[in-house]
Amino acid sequence: MRTRTSRDERPRRRGQGELEVQVLAALRQAPGPVTAAWVRGRLGGNLAYTTVMTILTRLHAKHAVTRERAGRSFQWRAASDEAGLAALRMRRVLDAEDDRGAVLARFVTALSPDDERVLRDLLGLPEDGTEDGTEDGTER
């Protein structure tokens, strides 16, 4: 006679991208380039090796990790920190759109005042939005 397990006893399914985030976190903590087996061990080892390899390969296709040959296998390394990976995702979304200007305009108009200030600082713009600090861009 088979017994059923309750929903609470089943392993929780990961959310989309959750495993990628965990793999990237492990790679960022690595002392250098590491093997898929090393990553698997850091994630608890209950994942199949092929699952870890699939995630690493997907991350490589997204340019989120780099790999180098080590004998017949690869050693893996995070290509960037979390901010760099978020920027890569934003760039991919922007690249997929036909009207980049419209997407950027919508993005910028939805920024909080603090985020807008950070963006202005990064672009070297004064607070009033003009390049030279005057209201209409003319010399004073």
TrEMBL record:
<protein>
    <submittedName>
        <fullName>BlaI/MecI/CopY family transcriptional regulator</fullName>
    </submittedName>
</protein>
<dbReference type="InterPro" id="IPR036390">
    <property type="entry name" value="WH_DNA-bd_sf"/>
</dbReference>
<dbReference type="InterPro" id="IPR005650">
    <property type="entry name" value="BlaI_family"/>
</dbReference>
<comment type="similarity">
    <text>Belongs to the BlaI transcriptional regulatory family.</text>
</comment>
<dbReference type="Pfam" id="PF03965">
    <property type="entry name" value="Penicillinase_R"/>
</dbReference>
<dbReference type="InterPro" id="IPR036388">
    <property type="entry name" value="WH-like_DNA-bd_sf"/>
</dbReference>
<keyword id="KW-0805">Transcription regulation</keyword>
<keyword id="KW-0238">DNA-binding</keyword>
<dbReference type="GO" id="GO:0003677">
    <property type="term" value="F:DNA binding"/>
</dbReference>
<dbReference type="GO" id="GO:0045892">
    <property type="term" value="P:negative regulation of DNA-templated transcription"/>
</dbReference>
<keyword id="KW-0804">Transcription</keyword>
